[in-house]
Amino acid sequence: MSEDSDGSIVDLLRNAMELNVKLASAIERMRAPAEFGRSVMDDGSCYDLGETAKMLSPKLEAETGVGLGRNRLAEALRNMGVFMQDNEPYQPYLYHFRIVLKPTPVGMKKVPLFTGEGLSWVLPKLVEYYR
Known about the structure:
Blueprint: H1 3-40, E1 46-47, H2 49-64, H3 70-79, E2 97-104, E3 107-115, H4 116-130
Antiparallel strand pairs: 1-3, 2-3
């Protein structure tokens, strides 16, 4: 082997080691959202915005320092392009919600409820949004 090929092998190994460190860091950052997602993914329950905010707030605050309430969650989802102005999810995101009709004094209102899978989907999005 020539001296040039030894240098390029060393460079490749160094780059691989740097990539490995970055990947390990990314895996560690996603550990909490993944554990949370695993716990709620298949429970069959649905959660309104207030319940969702209460469940996600401690994890989001631990990751970003930002607390979450119902109004802040709805605002973030609108800003991220998930919700329309009336807090109804856009078509591509319907998979993460169950829409129910609630009676109001003036008629019926569509209310989005997060599915368990929707909770595990939205947590990393919120972490990214608030970082």
